[in-house]
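Run log // design_07
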């Protein structure tokens, strides 16, 4: 029985084979990406690839710079060739919930810019519907977070918690709060996203809908590729 880290490591060869010399890469956030970043550095230092990275979080940028990967700001690039990231949930239509690491706004900016967006995940992230095993993170302004949470809870069956880290409210790289929403079965992700995104104070939701080109999944039976 392979553990979760082994399942994640299984996905790396398939995704690094898609990285080409001269690319601008969108580099995501989370435990799977932390395993990928040294592989990107290997392409640069051992295979002499010229790669520019745009990171979805300060944490990833720090890790990449430590390995001498050329990292630039998103406003300094005209396009992103390939974005690679993990996910908290993947449904049968390759729609995602992301934001467990709190970087969902920056992730969405970079993944939308990319000509191709590939997700790497272990089999535990594959679900029948979004919200089945994970909360929906929503990034909100600190000013009116409580009012926003109450509006979200006006939807039947939805429970909202402000994310805390060691008893302190979690703050994103953008200086905002995250509201984690427990969703009942039967919520339409498209309708829910539309409702949330129009609430004053909501910056972005953790729904990544109609964005993913491919999901590479590490399973107990090997690597499974899910294409759009």
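design_07 sequence
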């Amino acid at each position: 029985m392979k553990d979760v880290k082994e399942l994640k490591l299984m996905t790396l060869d398939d995704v690094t084979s898609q990285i080409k010399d001269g690319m601008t890469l969108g580099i995501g956030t989370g435990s799977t990406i932390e395993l990928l970043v040294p592989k990107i550095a290997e392409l640069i230092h051992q295979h002499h690839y010229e790669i520019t990275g745009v990171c979805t979080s300060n944490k990833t940028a720090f890790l990449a710079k430590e390995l001498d990967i050329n990292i630039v700001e998103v406003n300094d690039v005209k396009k992103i060739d390939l974005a690679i990231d993990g996910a908290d949930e993947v449904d049968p239509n390759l729609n995602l919930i992301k934001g467990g690491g709190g970087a969902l706004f920056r992730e969405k900016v970079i993944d939308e810019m990319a000509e191709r967006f590939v997700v790497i995940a272990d089999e535990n992230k594959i679900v029948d519907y979004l919200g089945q095993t994970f909360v929906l993170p929503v990034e909100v302004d600190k000013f009116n977070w409580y009012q926003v949470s109450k509006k979200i809870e006006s939807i039947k069956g939805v429970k909202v918690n402000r994310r805390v880290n060691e008893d302190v409210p979690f703050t994103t790289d953008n200086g905002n709060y995250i509201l984690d929403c427990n969703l009942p079965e039967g919520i339409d992700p498209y309708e829910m996203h539309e409702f949330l995104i129009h609430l004053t104070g909501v910056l972005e939701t953790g729904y990544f809908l109609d964005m993913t080109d491919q999901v590479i999944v590490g399973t107990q039976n090997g690597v499974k590729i899910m294409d759009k």
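The domain at 2-125+207-221 is CATH 3.40.50.1360 (Rossmann fold).
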